Task: inverse folding
């Protein structure tokens, strides 16, 4: 066979080209096989990453919902505390108003009594002087 190739250079060139093409096809097949294997591994990793991201998102969503509920409860409690404080302050203000009114009434009655006494005494002196 080597004699035929040595006698016909075109045939030798063609045989060399066929061998090179076969080697290239084998390398290309191995490369494609490696790429497919890498793509499958990458797809599997992507699925795992997506599952983990979905789980994390679910946990974050639940945590956010819990925090929102807790904030709502705290807001409602603060509103109730404010209402209690307002009612207590109203009660205190009413008691203070009654106390001030009572003191003013007592002071007014005392001063009016003193004024009437003074006027009575003056009228009595005037009456005696007449």
Result:
């Amino acid at each position: 066979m080597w004699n035929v190739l040595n006698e016909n250079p075109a045939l030798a060139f063609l045989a060399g080209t066929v061998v090179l093409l076969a080697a290239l096809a084998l390398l290309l097949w191995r490369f494609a096989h490696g790429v497919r294997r890498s793509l499958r591994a990458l797809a599997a990793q992507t699925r795992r990453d997506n599952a983990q991201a979905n789980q994390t998102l679910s946990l974050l969503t639940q945590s956010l919902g819990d925090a929102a509920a807790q904030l709502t409860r705290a807001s409602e409690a603060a509103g109730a505390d404010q209402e209690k404080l307002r009612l207590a302050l109203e009660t205190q203000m009413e008691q203070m108003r009654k106390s001030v009114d009572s003191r003013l009434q007592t002071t007014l009655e005392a001063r009016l009594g003193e004024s009437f006494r003074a006027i009575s005494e003056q009228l009595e002196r005037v009456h005696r002087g007449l």
User: Anything to note?
Assistant: The first helix runs from residue 2 to 7. DSSP finds two helices and no strands in the chain. The chain has a mean pLDDT of 93.
